[in-house]
Design a protein that fits this description.
Length: 739
């Protein structure tokens, strides 16, 4: 449909129908939903007219189901404007990839783009038009449950992934292909910084911190073409994001020139009342509309109150027309006016979903997401050993994290499945050993998703005995342990970020037996592993790896793949260190290398300052050596570049992939500057004995920051450039930026 026709369509719609286009409802309102009247309708207080003419629908999946709803909708709606189908496809559709904090550990945006392409293809043939992804919230607090959905603590790295996700979902061209879906970047903005790491809690930071660290990745997603943005639940400078004109109109629309759709998060417009910034729903409708929110997700606020707002303030109808036009324009871009069913196709679903090609990619992504945290040469395991595989994750299929509703658990490859492919049956002893979580309290606090069959029926005493017995019979023990997947994700904040106590007890009992111990850690966040570091000979961080979990992990455990993962988020030494991140300020009393002797320095009296494992950290089965680190020039002039060069040698017995990281420090600025900032990274594969030269370019634009006047500028002076395999172990050279 041409733009002129779209405008005419909007002009010919009644005010009510325009308002209904800005309403998004869940599938529980459609397709002869059970208890519709007494349930969802009553809860939301929404009328049939609104339901039958809503603009979009949330989290309905499947070709047949989406087509049936669309068909019925097109027969009953006033204007025959097709529904938009939107869903949370965060780390995969049916082929589930590692949770994003694991994707972040690959340092391989190109691979993440491929994973997003697969997710988009599977979703498109299942009738989905928009995914509420990428989530690009920067995180520095692993108590927060949604760290699981983030790619980590660094704006530069998160921006690279934001672009990769968007290009993977929407394609590289301007026009969408049939295999593409729309990306909705979220949560705008700074949802990842709640006080205390407590879900939905207050966010409070300077504009400088917001712009320097928290905003860049949203901007990167929009620069990559993301066509939709979702507001966040939190306040920004005391005003809820969903009612924040400065954030949504001044920055998003004016400064960044974004003209796509802004959708609220779930019920966030209604929750403006809970925030205490409006008296009632009508005021909430007005505040959100004036703040630039186009679509009201799952409340009746717009549907029931916007007409009243317009009657009182007719000039605000222009906002409604703008919003409706954006919604219709997106439907037009998807070709829905010509074909309301787009590419939803049951046969295609059969062919595409969980195909070998998709599974193979998922397995590769698992390989590259794994981070080897410790290895006293116990890994890789050799194949002539008897192995005791012990722990609640030994046979579990709950390996996909909390945003993978659709993953069919039978399609998930467990550790036991994969180990059985590598070992003879008499070589593998498997025992669950303990529950995942230790009490009814946790079961209840995890919400009603925690089903009985998980592990509450376990005979703990018998299981522990079996595990001890198997460990005694084995040559090496592999423990598959970790937090429950519902201890992370939305609503999954934890004050204690250690392994569940019941599993720590299991580890204590098994470690008494004295066999070599390998720990495989499943979690949606950095855990406090300072106890486990001393109990295990090797530690492999696996996150929640998804459909191909077992295969991807076994490939590394048995040496077919050399681990290359690098942390995109620091592992705190202790929860008391939080927030701990690599790009900190030096402070006026930095802790010198002389250690804790000086009392009056920036330190704790009871724990170290350094995290347990730093940003960018990860081990390999081989050894990479960095030599001949040089700069092409010690002076950087505006409009010129400095070339950074370093030689990387593989000095071990395994081929492997190294992630060379480049950090820069501005030694003196008009405002305090971080002790280092990631400004480049490259991955190289090296055979044993092979050496390669890797180069980076530095130019003036990379040195810019928000100065005292909040202008984004560089300032002349001394800089350090650091090269290394993580944010701690670096070599340093200096250069000067000239006036
Ligand atoms: C949730 C989440 C958001 C998600 C939305 C729709 O509350 O905050 O990330 O996309 O609702 O499910």
């Amino acid at each position: 449909m041409k733009k002129k026709q779209l405008k005419e369509l909007v002009n010919n719609m009644s005010l009510k129908d325009k308002i209904f286009q800005l309403l998004q409802l869940s599938g529980s309102f459609y397709q002869d939903a059970p208890d519709l009247v007494t349930g969802p309708k009553a809860k939301l207080g929404i009328e049939d007219d609104a339901i039958q003419n809503a603009g979009s629908i949330l989290n309905v999946r499947g070709a047949e189901k989406t087509k049936a709803i669309q068909k019925e909708y097109m027969e009953t709606s006033h204007n025959k404007i097709p529904l938009l189908f939107m869903a949370d496809i965060i780390n995969g559709f049916e082929t589930i990839f590692p949770v994003p904090i694991g994707l972040g550990a690959t340092w391989n945006p190109e691979l993440i783009k491929q994973a997003a392409e697969v997710s988009a293809h599977e979703a498109a043939v299942s009738g989905i038009h928009v995914t509420f992804s990428p989530m690009v919230d920067l995180v520095r607090d692993p108590r927060w449950g949604r760290v699981m959905e983030s790619t980590g603590e660094d704006a530069f790295l998160n921006s690279a992934y934001a672009k990769a996700f968007v290009k993977g979902y929407q394609g590289d061209a301007d026009d969408l292909s049939d295999n593409n879906i729309i990306a909705c970047v979220k949560h705008f903005a700074a949802y990842g910084a709640p006080e205390g790491g407590r879900e939905y809690n207050t966010v409070d930071m300077s504009e400088r911190t917001l712009r320097e660290y928290y905003l860049p990745a949203y901007k990167a997603a929009l620069d990559a073409g993301a066509k939709m943005v979702m507001t966040s639940f939190n306040v920004v400078d005391g005003i809820p994001a969903t009612g924040n004109k400065w954030l949504n109109r001044d920055i998003l629309r004016e400064e960044w020139d974004f003209d796509g759709i802004l959708i609220s998060d779930y019920a966030a417009i209604k929750e403006l009342e809970d925030h205490g910034v409006v008296e009632n729903a009508k005021e909430a409708a007005k505040l959100a509309l004036e703040a630039g929110v186009d679509i009201d997700m799952m409340t009746s606020v717009y549907a029931n109150h916007l007409e009243e707002v317009i009657n009182e303030l007719p000039e605000t109808e222009k906002y409604i027309d703008e919003a409706v036009y954006r919604v219709l324009e997106l439907k037009n871009e998807l070709g829905l006016f010509e074909n309301p069913y787009r590419v939803a196709n049951a046969e295609k679903e059969e062919e595409v979903i969980l195909s070998d090609k998709h599974r193979n990619l998922a397995r590769k992504v698992v390989n590259e997401s794994l981070v080897l945290l410790k290895n006293n040469s116990t890994l890789p395991l050799n194949l002539n050993q008897k192995i005791a595989l012990i722990g609640p994750y030994a046979e579990s299929t709950s390996l996909s994290g909390s945003w993978s509703f659709s993953s069919d658990k039978d399609s998930t490859v467990t550790l036991k499945d994969a180990f059985s492919e590598w070992l003879n049956s008499d070589q593998l002893l498997v025992a669950t050993g303990s529950r995942v979580v230790e009490s009814e309290f946790l079961k209840d606090s995890l919400g009603n998703y925690y089903s009985e069959e998980d592990d509450m029926k376990l005979d703990e005493e018998a299981e522990l005995k079996k595990a001890i017995d198997y460990a005694k019979q084995s040559d090496v023990v592999v423990m598959a342990i970790g937090e429950h997947y519902l201890q992370s994700g939305e609503g999954g904040s934890r004050a204690d970020i250690e392994l569940p106590q019941v599993q720590k007890k299991l580890v204590d009992e098994i470690s008494k037996i004295g066999k070599p111990m390998v720990g495989i850690i499943f979690s949606g966040r950095p855990l406090d592993l300072k106890a486990e570091v001393n109990q295990f000979d090797s530690l492999l961080q696996a996150w929640f790896p998804g459909t191909e979990a077992g295969h991807g992990i076994a490939d590394v455990v048995f040496g077919k793949v050399n681990p290359s993962g690098r942390l995109s988020m620091s592992f705190p030494y202790d929860v008391g260190q939080i927030p701990v991140h690599y790009n900190e300020f030096n402070t006026g009393r930095p802790l010198e290398d002389s250690g804790h002797s000086k009392r009056y320095t920036s330190k704790y009296v009871d724990i170290p300052n350094k995290p347990l494992f730093s940003f960018g950290y990860g081990l390999s089965y081989t050894t990479f050596n960095y030599t001949n680190f040089t700069l092409s020039n010690k002076i950087l002039r505006k409009n010129e570049k400095i070339t950074v060069s370093v030689e990387i040698s593989n000095e071990g017995d395994y081929s492997g992939k190294e992630t060379i990281q480049m950090y820069i420090r501005d030694m003196v600025g008009s405002v305090t500057r971080p002790i280092k900032e990631l400004k480049g990274f490259k991955q190289v594969k090296l055979q044993p004995g092979e050496t390669k030269t890797v180069t980076f370019e530095i130019d003036e634009s990379m040195l810019r920051f928000y100065n005292r006047e909040m202008s984004f500028v560089s300032e002349p002076g001394k800089f350090e450039v650091m090269i290394g395999s993580n944010s701690e172990d670096v070599q340093t050279l200096e250069f000067t930026l000239e006036k």
